[in-house]
Amino acid sequence: MIDIDDILVPKGVAPGPGQVSAHQKPTAYKPAVATSPDLTRIIKLPRREQPSEDKCEALIQFMTAKLRKENASCECATIRKGGCITELNASQAWTLYEAAVYGGILGGIGVGHGKTLLGILISMVIKDCKTALLLVPPKLVDQLILEYRMAGQHFHVPNLRVHTGKPRGLEVSPDAPWLHVMPYSRLSRETAAEFIKNLDPDLIISDECHTLKDPDNSTRAARVQRYFDENPDTKGAMWTGSLTDDSLNNYAHLSRFCLGEGSPLPLDPHVTDDWARAIDPSDWPAPMGALTKLCTPGEHVHDGFHRRLSETPGVILTRKAAIDAPMTITERTPPPMPDVVKDALDGIRAFVRPDGEELVEAWEVAMSARQAACGFYYYWDFENGETEEQVDTWRAARKAWNQELREKLKPRAEFLDSPLLCQRAAERALHGLDPSMCMSCDGSGRTSPGHPGECSKYHCQDCIVWDPTGLPLVACDECGGRGKVPARPVWECEAWAPWKAIKSTVKPITKPERLSPYLVEDAAEWGLRNKGVVWYSYNALGEWIAEMSGLPLHGGGPKAAPRIAREDGSRSIVASIQAHGTGRDGLQRLFDRQLICNPPSSSTTWEQLLGRLHRQGQNAKEVFAEVYLHTPEFKASLAKAMTRSLYVQTTLGSAQKLQTAMGE
Questions:
Q1: In 3D, which of 4, 5, 3, 10 has the Cα closest to residue 24?
Q2: CA-to-CA distance for 175 and 464, rounded, in angstroms?
Q3: Which of 215-229, 260-274, 477-491 has the highest mean pLDDT?
Q4: Contact indicator for 572, 530 with CB cutoff of 8 Å
């Protein structure tokens, strides 16, 4: 087990690099939480207990019978190994029941509890639902289609339409609702705002809804928020295994989308901020003040808040892990750090990268130090003949544009909620263009022809209008061939013209520079001695480990899912946390061991990552994980993740894998 004493320091001892203290003194005054109309409303909300085991069993039988259809000649065996899906599990039955009763769901539903099937079935139980929009991570689309085919063998399912590439789908019943599936990646595209508005869904479902946690800094989250604000009667059903990482602000707005006035969190963002100062993880939280009304005498604010949250109708919080097998995390010590890596780390901590680049932001230092601890670092290479003066001018123009762009994006206004749309608004102002002219086709009403796998000048193939024969048309998808669109905003941006003039004159190339293979050799040895997953965060590291070990590398890309699905567990694999650390099902049937080369600081990432092997379908009696913690930066990442996971566990009541695996 990892000795947490080298991360947390006792009272009176100053924390060193990579250490934290639970007894730091306050540096500023934080007022107590004030009373508010939101708090009064929340106190008055009805309460219900979470279902007992007997009630869960009754819900399983009731909801399964309600949705099940008889099929004596199913095709399950030809669709996927593992048998038929003929009965809901407890989490699914409880969620569907409450969705039918209350019309909305906010779910803190743990990894491995069957959220994909929920997304397929929930529109069948929501009253008067005719059109539903399901938002999913891109890599889960193929898994969802497979699950839909399986579910349709034994359950009544909605009609399906998947909006990826050429739209595809299946109509199973004219009386069933239509379920439109859109990956989050498409939600960021220019046409997505109009798509949702034209679709006019009765229900918006968000799987892995933590993707929508930051409307102020995320185009996709801002667009969903705008739709709910403009269409308050829309119902919401949103769930994830990681509702929050470090703040109530991660999910207060999601609770409003799903439950409206029945939300157990404040509807007023200012009140949410007030509560967050007392509830969010902090070395010095604000006094709970009026939140004592949620607590019994002497009770911690986390306990009172959790009880109010968990007892609110429409809130589903799973408490237990999806499997009973224990998980253990231990520290793996690499070989002694060579001097070249030590020197690189000393320089980086002094804000100078090994290539001489002066670092400016603390996050740049932390990122470079984490890379150097693995034996390499990334740098920008200017190898196209640019002079130093050109590079400096380019950097200055880029910085000015990014600063002005960040400010313009903050309100997330319609048609100004993405960098591309802001750029087009600035271009209209720069050239005095007609605000109603379609800039996707320059007003011509036509785009270049294309077909799957190729891009036209302005649109990728999956934005092209398709005729019934499946052949692509060349009418502009944005303006429908008219050359005109509803008037778009114009932005008088000072930085756009200078940046536009110079941005293509300098083309930096991001390259890795290898310092020492000391950690790569150790990770490669682990992979060859074990049968498990070697997880990496940086492509340069993953490629190096695969090169050194000869083991297969599984990064991202459109074919990442089928490639990793072909593994049979006879050898270790080297896999990207970003590409396969969330939503990927099936690895638990192949492996029960994993090595984490770059410890994340996010409790959400840890929960999802550990859940790739620690989930239903794992047959081993115990699951093991090893992690490198040989630098202060790595220890600080784990310490931060531990603090955040404890906050999640105490406020949501769901056992966090990082806490249980560390013996906390």
A1: 10
A2: 30
A3: 260-274
A4: yes
Rounded-to-integer distance, Cα 398 and Cα 495, Å: 9
Q: Which residues of 261-289 are buried (b: 16+ CB within 10 A; e: fewer)?
A: ebbbbbbeeebbebbbbbbbbbeebbebb
How far is Cα 489 from Cα 414, in angstroms, rounded to an integer? 9
Helix-helix angle 632-652:301-310, to 10 degrees? 60
For residue 599, what are the CA distances in angstroms to 29, 342, 633, 638? 33, 19, 9, 6
For the chain, the C-alpha Rg in angstroms (whole number) is 26
Using CA atoms, how far apart are residues 56 and 54, in angstroms rounded to an integer? Answer: 5
- Identify any residues that bridge with 108 across adjacent strands, giving them in sequence order: 240, 317
242 with 648: CB under 8 angstroms?
yes
Spatial distance between the Cα atoms of 664 and 644, rounded to a whole number of angstroms = 13
3-state secondary structure of 327: strand
Residue among 246, 276, 49 nearest 645 (CA): 246
CB atoms within 10 A of CB 486: 9
Specify the residue for token string 């009418």: 475
Task: Give Cα separations from 550 to 50, 167, 376, 567, 594 (angstroms).
Answer: 50, 39, 19, 15, 17
Q: How far apart are CA 386 and CA 246, in angstroms?
A: 43
Percent of the chain with pLDDT over 70: 88
Please tell me the predicted confidence (pLDDT) of residue 480.
63
Summary mean pLDDT of the chain = 86
User: Please, which residues bridge with residue 160 across strands?
Assistant: 170, 179
238: helix, strand or coil: strand
Burial of 101-133, coded b for 16+ CB within 10 Å and e otherwise, reads ebbbbbbbbbbbbbbbbbbbbbbbbbeebebbb
- pLDDT band (50, 70, 90) for residue 468: very low
- CA 383 to CA 270: how far, in whole Å? 49
- By DSSP bridging, strand 593-596 and strand 533-536 are parallel
Residue 122 contacts residue 207 (beta carbons within 8 Å): no
- Delineate the domains of the chain, giving CATH numbers in brackets: 52-264+312-317 (3.40.50.300), 327-338+516-661 (3.40.50.300), 383-435+487-507 (no CATH), 442-484 (no CATH)
574 contacts 606 by C-beta, under 8 angstroms: no
**Strand 553-554 with 623-628, pairing:** unpaired
- Please report the pLDDT score of residue 283 as a whole number: 80
Half-sphere exposure of 317 (CA within 13 A, CB side): 25
- Rounded to 5°, angle at Cα 250 from 244 and 253: 130
Token pair in block for residue 387 = 């002079």
Q: Residue 470 pLDDT > 50, yes or no?
A: no
Q: How far apart (Å, rounded) are the C-alpha atoms in residues 595 and 579?
A: 16
Q: Are 397 and 494 in contact (CB under 8 A)?
A: no
Contacts of 156 (CB under 8 A, 6+ apart): 67, 68, 69, 124, 173, 176
The answer on pLDDT for 355 being more than 80 is yes
In degrees, rounded to 5, the angle at the alpha carbon of residue 609 between the alpha carbons of residues 608 and 611 is: 65
Q: Is 538 exposed, middle or buried (0-12, 13-18, 19+ CB in 10 A)?
A: buried
User: Which DSSP string do the residues of 613-642 spell out, in sequence order?
Assistant: TSSTT--SS-EEEEEE--SHHHHHHHHHHH
Amino acid at 583: G
